[in-house]
Every structure is written in C-alpha cells, then in structure tokens.
Amino acid sequence: MALAIALPCLARAQQDTQKEIERYRELLQDGNPSELFEARGAEHWKTKRGPKNASLERCDLGLSAGVVKGAYVQLPRYFADTDKVQDLESRLVSCMVALQGLSSEEAKRRPYSGPGQPSVMTDLVAWIASESRGMRIAPPQSHPKERLAYRAGEKIFYYRAGPHDFACATCHGEDNKRIRLQDLPNLTNARDAQRAFGTWPAYRVSQGEVRSMQWRLYDCFRQQRFPELEFTSDAAIALISFLAKQGEGGTFEAPAIKR
Amino acid sequence: MADAMRIRANIVGDKVEVRVLMSHEMETGQRRDARGDIVPAHFIQNVTVTHAGKTVLSAQWGPAISKNPFVHFRFKGGKPGEKLTISWVDNQGDKRTDEATISGG
Amino acid sequence: MNGKRREVLKAGGGAGVLALASAAGLIRPGEALGQEWNKAAFGTKSVAETVKALGGGSSTESKEIQITAPDIAENGAVVPISVESRLARTQAIAIMIEKNPNTLSANFEIPEGTDPFVTTRVKMGETSNVYALVKADGRYFHAVKEIKVTIGGCGG
Predict the structure, then answer these.
(1) In the CATH scheme, what is the homologous superfamily, with its name and number, of domain C41-149?
(2) How far is it, in rounded angstroms, from Cα B71 to Cα C56?
(3) With contacts defined as CB-CB under 8 Å, which chain A residues touch B31?
(4) Residues of chain B contacting A37 with CB distance shorter than 8 Å
(5) Do B70 and A31 count as a contact with CB atoms less than 8 A apart?
(6) What value of ipTM does the predicted structure carry?
(7) pLDDT at position B95, please?
(8) Quick one: fold of A31-258?
(9) Distance between alpha carbon B50 and the CA centroid of its chain, in Å?
(10) Do A21 and C74 touch (CB under 8 A)?
(11) Which whole number is the average pLDDT over C19-30?
(12) E strands present in chain B
C-alpha cells in the first residue's frame, strides 16, 4: 500500500526536477561565451599562417573554396581532393596542410582549448558552426563513401566493447534513459537526434570552453572506458556521419550553451 | 591583452538594456593544475560602465563570478548612436576597455 | 593655452574630479574605476561578516527583493542569478553565497538613473543559500533563495 503511494511521488519528483533543469538551461541562454570563440575564429580564418604564409580563406568546406555560410550543416561529406569523407575538423586539418603548409601533426597539435590556452581549431569550429546557425541539418548521402561512412558509424554506434561492455546505444539507443539528473537523448529517434546534433559545438559550462562534435565523441569514449577516439580518425568521422544523418532535417542551433 | 568584450546595448522603452560578455578566466586561486600546483588567482576585481561621462554601473567582483563573465543591467538616459564605455581591471593589474554604440529605439 | 589644459577645462564642465584627473593624464582610464577593491569584504566567511565589511550593521529580510535563479543548477560553475530591488533609493546590490569559500561574490553599485536590477553568473561549490543584499537609503536588506547544485551526467 505504502509503495503504491510512494512511486507516483517519486515520478512527480523526477518530473519537477526535470522542469527545474529545463529552467536552468533556459536561464543560461541569455549570454553565450561561445561568441568570444567565434570572434577569434573569424580572425583565424583570415590570418596568414605556416610556411606558406597563407590564410584559410581558400579552404573548401564542401560548398566550394571560401564558402563558410551553410557549410557545417552539409558536413560530413566526400571530398574528391582527399578521396575521403571528412567532417569539419578533419577538413580544417587538410586545409591547414594544403594551404598553409603545416604538417598534419602541427595542425592537430592543440585540437581543444583549456584554461588560459585557446585553440585555433576550436575557435574556427565555433565560428564556422555559427555561420550555419538557423539552417537545416542536411549531410549529403549521394556519394557511395558517404553512405559507407554512415553505415560504419552505425556499426560503431551499436558495437559493445570496453570493460563495461557498453555501446553508444547502451545509453543512447532507447527513450527515457537518464544518468543521474541528465536525460539522455535517444539518438535512434529523429527528434532527439536533431536536437543533439543541432546543439554541438557548444560552450560547455562545466568545461568553460567550446566543445566540438569530435570532442563530444572523444569524451563519450572516455566515459565508456573505450580506447581513445583519435582526433579526426576515420572512426570519429564515421560516427559523426551517422549522427549527422540521424539529425537530418533538424534546425542547427549551435554553438549552443550547456552544462 | 584579453579578448574584446562582446557588448550589446539596445533601447527598450525609455531605457538602455545592456548585456556584456567578458573574456576572462576568473581563476579562483584554489584550482590545481595537472602537475598539482595551485593555479594563481586571476580574476576581474573592478568593473565600470560609463555613458556621457557618467558612471551607470560599477562593481567589485570576487573570483566566484563565473569564467567569461556575463552582466545584464538597464539604465535611463541613453540615446541611439551614443557610446557606452566598459572597463575592467583584474587582481594582476590586467585591464581592458571597450566601447559600444547604443542601438535601436 | 595648450591643448591639454583645454581638454582639462572641457572635462571640468560638470564631469567630476575623476574625469578631470583622467583628462589631465593623472589617472589612466583603466584606473578611474571607483574605490579600491574591498579585500576585507571579499574575504569574509559569513553573511553577517560580509554585511559588516560592506559598511552595514545588520540586515533585514525584505520581500521587496526578488531573486530570479533556477532551483537546481546543472553545474555549479555557472549559475545565472538576477536580482531586482523594489526598495526606494537602492544604492547597491550584492550577491552572497553562504557555502562558498568566501561569502561575497559581487557588489554592484547602482547610481541614480540605473535600474536596481542586475543579472550575472556565479560559481557555487555546492548546494547553498544565495543571498541578495541590497543597500537602500543607507540601510541593508536581503532576500535568500536556496539553489541546489548537481554534478551532471557521467560525472563531468
């Protein structure tokens, strides 16, 4: 008898908690420090760098050289010059190498910012993402390699491994899952996937930095006690391809601000 | 020098609504780095906002203000096209001053 | 008459001593920032101590002070807090976090013509009472709200 009364109370308490968390998220929206990163990113795009002393302004992000507006929401995609499917960050590495003459190692040396240590890559991602804000998520699937990347990403999504035998799907493959107070998006559900893909990159207040999709997946792998997901690796690109396609049709609202 | 502040100043009714985003680590002086050493305190201590030579807001802050501080406030008497000046000084003597133009109406 | 003096005299037309000094190059613009940082007030460990360090004696709870903030902060690094005072002649708004290592987060001075309202973001180390302390007409008043702080998701 007592248990039957207690359970609805618990369910109500969880709902109230959820409402309060939503309110926290709403109140956060007013000022997004990602603007500081975007401003730097806009500058980096035009800054001459590397042995070739060139800027990134001729970089082709998929919509032809130099076109930044709308590029993010049509990535990942196949690029003929590298003969592979690439996401934004791997494409920026390609451009830094080809246009600026940096080595691949140099281009990938500081992918993520830290306290007092900004990252050119992070700043560029923030700015380029902001140039797709409000647009429809529309990663292409016309090239066979794009379709292959999606399928590879899907396989990885369901692949159980690591000491906990987790897959991405363990946490993100069903509705109504949560960890502590965080409700987890079901990435096999279009609405959740659109919202998830549409809000990365994000200024993560818990990090005090803008975090990209590459970072988000790297951190998921870390949480799962998987081997490290290497920056711009094929596996990372495949997973991003999968998630982008899952989020297809959603409105891109990044860079967002979240916990 | 620290990055520029992002300042929005809009006329709303008879007031100027100001939103400022500052770029600053706001280190508390209690965090340890990867080596275990204390990261020294580094935080904005004084903020001043002026318009037409008059202070419209001033503040003293401690390290408990969040990293990349955000402030939102409103004052009377500003007109579109007029300038707002915002300055900060931190505990290490770094400073930053930025201007914004009041928009809207 | 040299240009500098002209500047000083122009600034002198109703702008105040600090503006004069700044125009004369005696104080660099970044320094003309009001009083020296109140080290004592930012080192206090309780609400009562803070009020004293800010120059008050005691503080009265007031329903005329509104704190707008979430009941639960998903992360303590950034907790958005708004304070609005309906008290006449509000001069200053301070934000205090009881359980933080030091109680005082910020003190905003509100000149005449500026709304007695401010929004900012504070760090909270743990669930705590948050106090908005308002100085109005030379006296101190406060409101309090508890904000719960959680650690999110997988732990970070």
Answers:
(1) SoxY domain (2.60.40.2470)
(2) 25
(3) 115
(4) none
(5) yes
(6) 0.96
(7) 96
(8) Cytochrome Bc1 Complex; Chain D, domain 2 (1.10.760)
(9) 12
(10) yes
(11) 47
(12) 6-12, 15-21, 44-51, 54-61, 70-76, 83-90, 95-101, 103-104
